[in-house]
Design a protein that fits this description.
alpha+beta; 13 helices; Lipase; DUF620; 456 residues
Amino acid sequence: MDKKQGFFSALREEVARGLSPARARRRALAPLMEGPDPEEAAGGDGAGRARRDGWGRWVRGQLARAPSSGPVASAGGASAARRNDLRMLLGVMGAALAPVHVCAAEPLPHLSIKDTPIETSSAQYILQQYLAASGGQKLLSSVRNSYAMGKVRMVATECETAGRVVRNRMAARCAEPGRFVLWQMAPEMWYIELAVGGSKVHAGCNGKLVWRHTPWLGAHSAKGPVRPLRRSLQGLDPLTTASMFAGARCIGERKVNGDDCFILKLCADPETLRARSEGLAEIIRHVLFGYFSQKSGLLVHLEDSHLTRIQSTTGGDAVYWETTINSFIEDYRPVEGIMIAHSGRSAVTLFRFGEVAMSHTKTRMEEAWSIEEVAFNVPGLSMDCFIPPTDIKSGSISETVELPQSGKSKAGGLLPCHGAKVAALEKADDNVGRKRRAKGGFGSLKFQMPPVNREG
């Protein structure tokens, strides 16, 4: 059997040969769990091990590595810089959320021209075309759950201050490789695990609570309403994407990579912004722009920007953080009749300003991803796969705690509204990860491969 063959196609073949679904599932596990290609493995001895043991063991090996074992971290200073860069990359891009709550189970508004502003009616027409191009409303609505596995490469490319600009001239060699697995279940449940450069972020939503676990903060819930994972909007979930832009306005046209596109603009409402704010940290705005190709009708570019104001604890000027993510969505191919984007790239800018003149900083990061396998209506996937960790710390944390260390207040520490929470979370050991893996985490076959329906 070709090791590149997908799990579900392999499973169908094994069942067709007369094996029981349970036995066929065991035999079909290996192809999906294959590790990275030899040239992608970190270090010479990682290639053979990845090929023999499969993706699950390779991930566990990567997570067990000391951070300084990589070629980039040959010295103490380089090791610290690498860890800081990786923390920033995963904190900002690992499990970013969409601006507003959305429920794909709710029907989209009917196309109406009478007594409707032209910007709104145009947006509705564009979304109708998008749904038709993606496979049609009927087919998309038949998807109860979905699965996607892919590869990523993340790198910090540039850091700019008032005095100088430091560019990463070896960005191609310093890029951190990794992989991710994403499960979704209608209408609002999702779970993702992302392993990059020896660190892992996993996050999920059970329809009522969004939570995230990082090595530096442990497990915590997110402030504000339940929101979709931004990564699923990047060409993996057309129905949620259309529902997200249901309240958008068409603001014009623009070329993207030579393709004429309509632009839809969506703004988070004040109530949502207040719910996501906490203490001295206030989310001022969060705007999402979607660029839909006039030729294909598909989403080809996604841009979102949110601005946060952090008031100084000493009564001085506030500090502002503006985070902008530009994603180019490419290589659409049909999967079971649904158009899915199989690759893309994102450019992220973190801009910090305020306090005093000439004190701004700007950090640029990049991510490239590709999708290796997608499946819909996976047998056996249940709500139990989306249960949050049992030891989530009390209270929730806003996204401001994921800002780089230079985002601290003038007093030299985190804001009072976050300090106690972060201190408690950072003392947490790896119990969360062990419990999650015991229940079926990223390094476990139990969650990766949901039990096959015996009647299937």
